[in-house]
Amino acid sequence: MSRIILHQWEISPFCLKVRKILQYKQLVYVTKNYNGLLALRVSKLSKSAKLPMLKYEGDWIQDSSDIAEFLERRHPQPALFPSDPQQQAQALLWEDWADESLYWYEVYFRFMDQRALQLSIPMLCADRPRFEAWIIGSLAPIIYRQQLRAQGIGRLTRDRVETKFFQHLDRIEVVLSQQPWLASHELTIADIAVAAQLEEILRTSALKNRILAYPKLADWLTRINYSNPV
Predict the structure, then answer these.
(1) Taking the model in full, what pTM does it have?
(2) What is the C-alpha to C-alpha distance for residues 146 and 114, in angstroms, rounded to an integer?
(3) What is the pLDDT of residues 64-107, one digit of tens each?
(4) Does residue 188 contact residue 91 with C-beta atoms inside 8 Å?
(5) C or N terminus of the chain, fewer CB within 10 Å?
(6) Residue 227: partners with Cβ closer than 8 Å, 6 or more residues away
(7) Where would I find the GST N-terminal domain in this sequence (predicted)?
(8) Domain boundaries of the chain, sorted by first residue
């Protein structure tokens, strides 16, 4: 049995982020999915009832950023964090922006769009009894829409959300026109964190063609997956 087990939701950008880190570091791991009503069991893993959760031999680590730091200590090569202090600070700022800001666009485009929601529910309930899709399909939009309103983005019009999102992509395109990666001359946690959020948007959103119309960004996503296949 693998000494590394990733407890995850399959379409969580944070779980995708951890899978990318594990693959980038060429670590053998297995996943345990909590699709459908199995999500109720997550509370037994931690009081916060959140995933990802990584079991590494006898250690349990929660939160994608904490997992990244833990794996960097255990497996420092290839490095996730630049050795240069300025580049490292930039990489961590990008990671935090992806986790705390870009994430809400991923949630918005997945749960405030009926077409994306119809694609997402079967993924949320993969390999589970059919009736669970009805339950999750009824509850998930309510829960996430409440969270979006509390966060603020859920109070904006769809046009305003899209405008703000593509302004972010404009800025990423500018950065990538000047350098191959977001924070350094090599792939770092910045690239993995941002890409994980964008790839989950691409997975279910009708905005896919508009996003991939950015040439530098599209090339960057391809290079990340070449260096770090999912």
Answers:
(1) 0.94
(2) 16
(3) 999 999 999 999 999 999 999 999 999 999 999 999 999 999 99
(4) yes
(5) N
(6) 24, 187
(7) 2-79
(8) 4-74, 85-227
Q: Does domain 4-74 have CATH number 3.40.30.10?
A: yes
**Of the candidates 151, 106, 153, 123, the residue with the CA atom closest to the CA atom of residue 10:** 123
Residue 120 region by backbone torsions, left for phi larger than 0, else alpha for psi between -120 and 50, else beta: alpha
CA distance 169 to 159: 15
Return the residue matching tokens 């309510």.
142
CATH topology identical between 4-74 and 85-227: no
Q: Which residues contact 27 (CB under 8 A, 6 or more apart)?
A: 4, 71, 75
How high does pLDDT run on average in the chain?
Answer: 94
Token pair of 128 as six digits: 């589970």
Which pLDDT belongs to residue 229?
Answer: 46
Residue 10 vs residue 87, higher pLDDT:
87
